[in-house]
Amino acid sequence: MVGLILRYRLVRPVIPKLLALGGARLLALVGTQLGRSLMYDDANFALAAKAVADTGLAFGNQGWMTERGDFS
Questions:
Q1: Rounded to whole angstroms, what are the CA distances from 1 to 6, 9, 12, 14?
Q2: pTM (two decimals)
Q3: I need a surface site. Which of 3, 24, 40, 59 has the fewest CB within 10 A?
Q4: For residues 72 and 61, is the Cβ–Cβ distance under 8 A?
Protein backbone atom coordinates (compact mmCIF):
# COMPACT_ATOMS: atom_id res chain seq x y z
CA MET A 1 0.00 0.00 0.00
CA VAL A 2 2.86 2.38 0.80
CA GLY A 3 4.42 1.67 -2.61
CA LEU A 4 1.14 2.53 -4.35
CA ILE A 5 0.84 5.83 -2.48
CA LEU A 6 4.46 6.68 -3.24
CA ARG A 7 4.01 5.82 -6.91
CA TYR A 8 0.84 7.97 -7.09
CA ARG A 9 2.70 10.92 -5.55
CA LEU A 10 5.45 10.57 -8.14
CA VAL A 11 3.06 10.28 -11.08
CA ARG A 12 0.51 12.88 -9.96
CA PRO A 13 2.50 15.99 -11.06
CA VAL A 14 3.11 14.45 -14.50
CA ILE A 15 -0.56 13.81 -15.33
CA PRO A 16 -1.48 17.43 -16.24
CA LYS A 17 1.64 17.70 -18.40
CA LEU A 18 0.74 14.51 -20.24
CA LEU A 19 -2.82 15.74 -20.79
CA ALA A 20 -1.55 19.08 -22.08
CA LEU A 21 0.94 17.37 -24.39
CA GLY A 22 -1.76 15.04 -25.71
CA GLY A 23 -4.12 17.97 -26.29
CA ALA A 24 -1.42 19.91 -28.11
CA ARG A 25 -0.69 16.92 -30.35
CA LEU A 26 -4.39 16.52 -31.12
CA LEU A 27 -4.73 20.19 -32.02
CA ALA A 28 -1.63 20.01 -34.20
CA LEU A 29 -2.88 16.94 -36.06
CA VAL A 30 -6.38 18.35 -36.51
CA GLY A 31 -5.00 21.74 -37.48
CA THR A 32 -3.11 20.26 -40.41
CA GLN A 33 -6.36 18.83 -41.79
CA LEU A 34 -8.43 22.03 -41.58
CA GLY A 35 -7.16 23.36 -44.91
CA ARG A 36 -8.23 20.29 -46.87
CA SER A 37 -11.57 20.08 -48.60
CA LEU A 38 -14.10 17.58 -47.36
CA MET A 39 -14.69 14.34 -49.20
CA TYR A 40 -18.27 15.34 -50.01
CA ASP A 41 -18.40 19.09 -50.39
CA ASP A 42 -21.30 21.17 -51.68
CA ALA A 43 -20.54 20.47 -55.33
CA ASN A 44 -20.75 16.71 -54.78
CA PHE A 45 -24.08 17.09 -52.97
CA ALA A 46 -25.38 19.14 -55.88
CA LEU A 47 -24.20 16.52 -58.37
CA ALA A 48 -25.84 13.76 -56.33
CA ALA A 49 -29.11 15.71 -56.17
CA LYS A 50 -29.03 16.20 -59.95
CA ALA A 51 -28.33 12.49 -60.48
CA VAL A 52 -31.27 11.54 -58.26
CA ALA A 53 -33.49 13.98 -60.16
CA ASP A 54 -32.32 12.55 -63.51
CA THR A 55 -32.46 8.84 -62.69
CA GLY A 56 -34.80 8.58 -59.74
CA LEU A 57 -32.22 6.32 -58.05
CA ALA A 58 -30.72 7.50 -54.81
CA PHE A 59 -27.58 5.37 -55.13
CA GLY A 60 -27.32 4.87 -58.87
CA ASN A 61 -23.96 4.46 -60.58
CA GLN A 62 -23.28 7.98 -61.84
CA GLY A 63 -19.56 7.39 -62.14
CA TRP A 64 -18.23 8.57 -58.79
CA MET A 65 -19.99 6.21 -56.40
CA THR A 66 -19.14 2.57 -57.08
CA GLU A 67 -18.59 -0.62 -55.17
CA ARG A 68 -15.20 -2.25 -54.81
CA GLY A 69 -14.32 -4.28 -57.84
CA ASP A 70 -17.06 -2.66 -59.98
CA PHE A 71 -15.24 -1.08 -62.92
CA SER A 72 -18.30 -0.30 -65.01
A1: 9, 13, 16, 21
A2: 0.42
A3: 3
A4: yes
